Amino acid sequence: MTALTVALVLVVAAVGVLRWRRPAWYWLTFGVTLAVVQVLVRYGSVMDACGLTVPPARWRLALARATNRPTPGPRAPRILRLRPTRTGLVLRLKLRPGQDAFDVAAASDRLRHSFSMYGVTSRELRSGVVEVRMTGYDVLKRVQMPAQTDTQPMRVPVALRQDGSVHYRDYRAIPHALTLGATESGKSVYQRNLVAGLAPMDVALVGIDCKQGVELFPLARRFSALADDPDTAADVLDALVVRMERIYQVIRAQQRLAADVPDAEIAADIWDLPSDLRPTPVVVLVDEVAELALYANKEEEKRRDRIITALVRLAQLGRAAGIYLEICGQRFGSELGKGITMLRAQLTGRTAHRVNDETSANMAFGDIAPDAVLAAIQIPAEMRGLAIAGDSSGGWHRIRAPHTSLRQAVNICNRHADRTPDLPELAPFRPTLSASADASSPTAKPSPATA
User: Fold this and answer.
1) Nearest-angstrom CA–CA distance, 430 and 251
2) Which of 415, 420, 418, 404 is nearest to 446 (CA)?
3) 205 within 8 A of 224, measured Cβ to Cβ
């Protein structure tokens, strides 16, 4: 065996180990080049085999007969752009007459097999133009968020999608959301990523954690209000309703309805107000909504009705006042009592981690994306953090949040504790912290917090 053969064997073995142990590194070093060559060389035959070609136009056939040239073959969609990414390839295709985006979506599994890729998804950008995203490896097995993300005010990168793109929680586009998941499904990690992403922004955080505060109270330095029992939660929600009504009065006073004011400048929510008059937006995180809806006697039933009524009012009217709901729970259905289904109808964003039964998945997606129900109940128990995210448009994605420990979330909240706004309506519920702890230290341990 020659030295060249030995070197070649060692290189092949190294590439194999790299592909097994570090698929992302393998893709960036070898995989992307091989994939681009394979797509360009095999594109026409693969499209023909997958049924994504159309017969040649009649004028082409007539021209070939008139000039005695070979008959032209079937035509595949034209590649407008081929762009490598850190997780795969992105193809932008111009469809031929007679084709539509559904044809490409229906053939996505065949394209995955034909191009030897891990996954293929497609979406229509505009009429006749389809974007096909191919992933070269399982990006959700070991989530690595990109170093640069398109972070904007009230827009938080929280997870990675199966196609390699970043999943954002955009509160201005989807103001209220519901997150479901069984115990040990990764729901708490998803919530920590939300808090960690919101901590550096100019936003007030309000937490309701009826598990005696074990999830949210370690992050107390970044919260303007916290409640660890249903009684306090009812008072907090009532205070938020009062704040919402006051903000609407500010908006009405600043609507600027004069005839010479352009329509785009007429104030209809807080984002249309001048920056010096704009109230601080508020994100309300409810850790376990069932604890707010359960009751055992008449007094608790009255409190429960008061809580649900306040939540429904905030869900229906809070968007324009800059109040956004993030509701989490293991189950969320009509068995929690009256008003629950009305509240769920206002929660546009839906995220479901591993659930214990199909009914729980139906609670999240049955009314908006029935296809996502099957995907939600197929999440394996060992894939903690894997979830299905959808919205009222019917679209859904498989996502997974990067693992964020409680210590990491605490450090981020401590680092940005100076951004915690003081809201007059929520002042009685501001968590009190020990003066001996250094609030500005990112590594300081959290002191006990009380509402």
Assistant:
1) 26
2) 415
3) yes
Yes or no: say if 434 and 193 are a contact pair by the CB < 8 Å rule. no
Helix 230-253 and helix 298-317: axis angle, to 10°? Answer: 30
**Domain identity same for 398 and 291:** yes
Instruction: Name residue 116's amino acid.
Output: S
| Rounded Cα distance, 92 and 82, in Å | 7
Here the tokens at position 351 are 């995220």
Across the chain, which has 451 residues, the per-10-residue mean pLDDT values are: 73 70 79 90 91 82 78 86 91 91 91 91 90 91 85 91 91 92 89 94 94 88 93 94 93 68 68 88 92 87 93 93 93 82 89 86 81 86 89 80 92 93 92 56 40 34
Strand order in the sheet with 177-180: 166-170, 155-161, 396-400, 386-390, 349-352, 177-180, 323-329, 282-286, 204-208, 225-227
Measure the CA–CA gap between 151 and 23, rounded to whole angstroms: 27
Non-local CB neighbours of 231 within 8 Å, separated by 6+ positions = 303
Q: Is residue 145 part of a domain?
A: no
Looking up tokens 């608790």, which residue turns up?
300
pTM score, whole prediction = 0.84
Nearest to 229 by CA among 184, 177, 283, 287: 287
At residue 434, the pLDDT reads 60
The amino acid occupying position 262 is P
pLDDT for the residue 261: 56
Residues 391, 296 within the same domain:
yes
Domain with 97, as residue range(s), is: 17-135
- Total domains, the chain: 2
Residue-level pLDDT at 22: 74
Answer yes or no: do 72 and 199 share one domain: no
- Count of all residues that appear for the chain in the document: 451
Paired tokens of 123 = 């979406």
Q: What is the 3-state secondary structure (H, E, C) of 218-231?
A: HHHHHCCEEECCHH
The type of residue at 128 is: G
In angstroms, the CA 178 to CA 184 distance is 17
Q: Are residues 68 and 169 in the same domain?
A: no
- Looking at the fold, whether 125 and 169 belong to one and the same domain comes out as no
| Cα–Cα distance for residue pair 390/216, rounded to 1 Å | 25
- Give residue 239's pLDDT: 95
Residue 258 makes CB contacts below 8 A (sequence gap 6+) with: none
Work out the number of other CB atoms within 10 angstroms of the CB of residue 163.
Answer: 22
Q: Are residues 131 and 171 in the same domain?
A: no
Backbone phi, psi, residue 159, to 5°: -160, 175
